[in-house]
Amino acid sequence: MQKPSLPKGTRDFGPLQMARRNFILDTIKDTFQLFGYNQIETPAMENLSTLTGKYGDEGDQLLFKILNSGDFLKNVGPEDLQNGANATLSKVSEKGLRYDLTVPFARFVVMNRNELTFPFKRFQIQPVWRADRPQKGRYREFYQCDADVVGTDSLVCEAEIVLMIRRVFSKLNIADYDIKINNRKILTGISEVIGEAGKEGPLCVAIDKLDKIGWEKVQEELAQRDFQNESIQKLSPLINFTGGVQEKLDFLKNFLASSEVGLQGVEELKDTFGILQAMGEDLSHVELDMVLARGLSYYTGAIFEVKVNHVSIGSVSGGGRYDNLTGVFGMDGVSGVGFSFGVDRIYDVMEELNIFPQSTAQGTQVLLTHFDQKGYRYALSILTRLRSAGIVSEIYPDQAKMKKQLDYASKNQIQFAAICGDQEIESQTIALKNLETGVQENLGVEDAIKTVLEFIPQKG
Amino acid sequence: MQKPSLPKGTRDFGPLQMARRNFILDTIKDTFQLFGYNQIETPAMENLSTLTGKYGDEGDQLLFKILNSGDFLKNVGPEDLQNGANATLSKVSEKGLRYDLTVPFARFVVMNRNELTFPFKRFQIQPVWRADRPQKGRYREFYQCDADVVGTDSLVCEAEIVLMIRRVFSKLNIADYDIKINNRKILTGISEVIGEAGKEGPLCVAIDKLDKIGWEKVQEELAQRDFQNESIQKLSPLINFTGGVQEKLDFLKNFLASSEVGLQGVEELKDTFGILQAMGEDLSHVELDMVLARGLSYYTGAIFEVKVNHVSIGSVSGGGRYDNLTGVFGMDGVSGVGFSFGVDRIYDVMEELNIFPQSTAQGTQVLLTHFDQKGYRYALSILTRLRSAGIVSEIYPDQAKMKKQLDYASKNQIQFAAICGDQEIESQTIALKNLETGVQENLGVEDAIKTVLEFIPQKG
């Protein structure tokens, strides 16, 4: 008999994990909806022609491919065995698993361009799959939660991203975090004014390591990447600058004075903050990070990253503005802005901070218990009344010792046991025992319902 | 430039479809939870060793297999090209996509046997994949919603399945349906008393066609399947019997008098109905179908099927009791009972009956509109107040003609437009226009909030 196992890098989620994950996902979903985003879903499988070439060579390797149905070898000949896997792939597979939610969304927009009303605000919460080497915190199947607006350049979208992040984190009770924000145009401007126009790519790769390796080492790396010494020195004031959002905006206005695109980036950030102000919102948790880059090739305007402080996993959310989401599918001019919550990371952060609310652990609230067939019948008569009152309840289904029934309740973290014995039947009551405090009361059913509802939020 | 497409048999779900699907899924989920079921999730990918051999030869062919990562050809030689796809499969693939939720659940129970408390009540709502030939109403990716209790023989589980089905259908406003119920032991008993012991399989296959081809043809088919003429004639009273649940139970008691197992099946049904009665519940929508079979080889006790009347798709839910869920993974003695809602079918039924509530179409409830930059700023100042009141609201993000803004609202089925012009700014009001009725009122923000909340359920 085989001993079953899970494919590496994949996970089951049991009841407690699911309750906690749902708490996070429902909070995110609720926030997206309040801001007018509409949910869509796309299939797990996409044609390989949709997926390949969108994530770089490394990404193509990490795609999970589906073997063609039926005789998958029918087009494969001996010469293919010589040519190798990459050359033969298209003969045995034409579908792959979704690698992210962005490319499927772009495909969706293109295929539904005539039915959609722009600007189109969508969110999408679905798993993605990557054949990455599994390691702690990195899985081969994980959920992404993306929200994007396409078909508008309005900076109100950027401002609302800040607001949505703050709402989600506030509801999740995560207090100590920074929303780092920057603009691709500022990065372009920086490379211009230091005399290395067009090299914002390598510039950002190097500067990204500032926290880890320090300014000395970053300078060495820049030199290795053919940055002139003079250019590197010009960066110094930027690297060493400290201050709040307003000071940084003032600094950048000076620093980027000779770069038109750079100043435009500063202006966009200023306008975004202005919109927040017009909405009666402050800049709490917002940090202007003048060298934040994140997937630079992709973004053309605002860039976001959210870091939770004092936890081992830092970055839990990110995104930015792009100019041409759907160009690769032949539909130009669709700009937009989007971002993504990393659910698995938020889960780990909340576990580390031990801030999951007690109530997320709760399934059943009342277990009806009984000593014999008569008590069982009596308990059955009460069950429907509890449920009609919105109380999640069940009856212990078998005839068993009371200890076993109470064990079942405590292992399942059920708060109340309602004991149905001869005395209770006679007086038409139940003995309601709070398994947390040990307090037991004899109550009529209506009073018992009131007591339970006072303790715990109702459902249904 | 490529024109993107979807793999055949798969679908995107846009905003309206998602809202409707969520209405169905949330109703089912809410009901499962009220009855004390806990949600779990398992990975999309399972090892092929977990999946193969569980669904028959045909099922094995319909599994979607994942190509091994990296050089998937490395173990394939010229001789494999001779041997063909089936023989070579294990050299290029070791994982497949989930085909149903039952086998992954069995694997989950076995792998977590030491952590779980039995009886274990779980529900699971996830997509499954089958390489079936796509046709109307049959997809290659579709959702299953399963609830199972394992580790108890108690018939309270069967009774609660009836109650959960009735609750879900009542909340979905599906009124005309039958919960057909039978018991495998009755089918065994029937084959015994007609003198064809052990042949309930072919018996049920033939009788299953009764509605379609009539009793004459069924008799022909039974004869072809080597049933004695005398046996077939003994079936006649059963086939021709009409009556309510109680009459059928009485009839079966007589008909199966010589079959111990048959009488046991009758007793189980009687007890199940007795439990419903003890719970203060009636037998509405319950129909005892003495020849209902459904996946016979699998079930050992109760068998359920739900049919909606007067619609093209009939069967929308089914399930039953099984004796040995996990035996195939080396863990014996885990009996249980489960059933499954077919979400796609329920969706189609509700669409055909045109009973989706209007409110499920609703995303954004209020769109703030504006004529110029000044109005835009004013609208921004109101947006947060609307959202804080739980009203799903957005601002039209760009400067655009009022007609375009109102078009956006009506295409997105937004009920209210809040127009922010010079007059409104001066009087600190908004012109709240109900886009359904055309009625427009000038209101202070607090009054506008009240008006909107009276019309539509709040969120957030």
TrEMBL record, chains A, B:
It comes from Algoriphagus ornithinivorans. Its main location: cytoplasm. HAMAP family: His_tRNA_synth. It is an enzyme of class 6 (ligase). Residues 1-397 form the Aminoacyl-transfer RNA synthetases class-II family profile domain. Its EC number is 6.1.1.21. This is Histidine--tRNA ligase. The gene is hisS. The keyword Aminoacyl-tRNA synthetase applies. L-histidine binds at D100, L101, T102, R130, Q144, D148, R294, Y298, Y299. CDD domains: HisRS-like_core (cd00773), HisRS_anticodon (cd00859). Homodimer. It is found in: Cytoplasm. Keywords: Aminoacyl-tRNA synthetase, ATP-binding, Cytoplasm, Ligase, Nucleotide-binding, Protein biosynthesis. GO terms for biological process: histidyl-tRNA aminoacylation. NCBIfam families: hisS. PROSITE patterns: AA_TRNA_LIGASE_II. Coiled coil: none annotated. It catalyses: tRNA(His) + L-histidine + ATP = L-histidyl-tRNA(His) + AMP + diphosphate + H(+). It comes from the Bacteria. Gene3D superfamilies: Anticodon-binding domain, Bira Bifunctional Protein, Domain 2. GO terms for cellular component: cytoplasm. One of its GO terms (molecular function) is histidine-tRNA ligase activity. Belongs to the class-II aminoacyl-tRNA synthetase family. The keyword ATP-binding applies.
